[in-house]
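Two folds, back to back.
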Amino acid sequence: MTNQSATLQLGRMPHLPELFKRFNAGRHLNRVAEPALWAALEKEQEHYLTLFSSLGFNLRIDGRGFAWFHFDGANSNVNSTTRQLALLFMLVFELKADEGLHLARFTDWLIDRELLAALFERSNDLLLAEGLDEQNLVSLFERACNYGFAESSNGGWQLLPAVWRYLDHFESLASAQLDDDDVLVEAVEMDAIGEEGDEQ
C-alpha cells in the first residue's frame, strides 16, 4: 500500500484515535450507549479490523451491539476486577432468574441500591470472601461503567450489551454442567442395569 492510499484509508477513520484509546484501555463500545460512534465503527468495520490487526490488536465486533479489544493476557488489577464483575453479574442473573425474568432482556433492568442490598443479603458470605461489602458493590458498578458494561440511569445503573460476554460464559458453564450431569446419570443407570443383570 502506498503512502497516499494509506493516508486515504486513515482519512475514512476520523474516530481512530478515540476508538483506539477506548479499546486499548479495556473499555467496550456499545451501540445503544454511543450510537454515533458505533455507526462510525460499523461503517468502516473492515478497515478498522485490518488496521488494528496489522498493529497486533484483536478487535472483536459482536453483532448484538458491542466491540472491544480482546487481550489473551491481562494484568493482575484487570483480572481482579474481571473476577469481581463476573461474581456480581452472576449474582444479578441468579436473582433475576429467581424472579422469573428472561435473562436475555438484561438491558431492560434497572440495578439500584435496593437490588444491591438484596444481593448482599442473599450472598454476603460469598461477597465478603471476595472483599465486597454493599459500598464496594456500588464502587464496582462504577467500574463496570468505566469498562462499558453499564451506564448510570435513574439513580442506579442499566447493563449494556457488552454484558453478553459474561452471560454467554455463564450459559456455557451451565450447559457443560448439564452435560456432566447427564453423563453421571447415564453412568449410574448403566451401573444399576449391570447390578440387575448380576442379580438375575
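---
second:
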Amino acid sequence: MKKIIVVLAIVTPFLCYSQNLKDLKNKAEQKVAQPDSKTNFTEEEAAKALREALKQGAEKGAALVSKSDGYFGNPKIKIPLPPDARQKEQKIRSMGLNKEVDDALLSINRAAEDAGAKAKDIFVKAIQNMTVRDAITIVKGNENAGTEYLKKQTTTALQADFKPVIQAS
C-alpha cells in the first residue's frame, strides 16, 4: 500500500500539469480549425509542439517537487500517512508520540522529493517516444487524454525505479 501511495504521489504533480495540456489542446484545435494557410501546420509540427510542451511541464514539475519541501511544504501534494496508519494516527498521537508521527510523514515526503528528479527522466523519455499518432490521439481525445497517455507510459517504470526508494524509507 505504501508503494502505491508514494508512486501516485510522485506522479500527481506531473499529471497536474494536465491543465496546461488542456490549454495547449484548445489552442491546437483552434489553430487547426482556422482556414488561413499561415496558421496551418503539419501533424508532425503539432506533435513536436505537444512533445515540447509536455517536456517543459515534466521538467518544471520535477524541479518543483524534487527540492526540499517540494512535497512536504506544499499542502496540495503533501503525502499523507497511508490509510491504515491514518486510522491509528490520533491514537498514537494521544500516547504522546507526535514527533514519531511527524517524523514518519516527513520521511515519506522526503523519499518522494528524492525520487522527483528521477521521475523527470521517465516522463521525458515517455514524451520523446510519443508518436504523431499518440499526439493526435491526445489532442483529439478527452480532457485527460494527455494524463492517461503519461500514466500508461510511465507507471511501470516509476514503480520499478521507486520500489527500492520506497522500501528504504
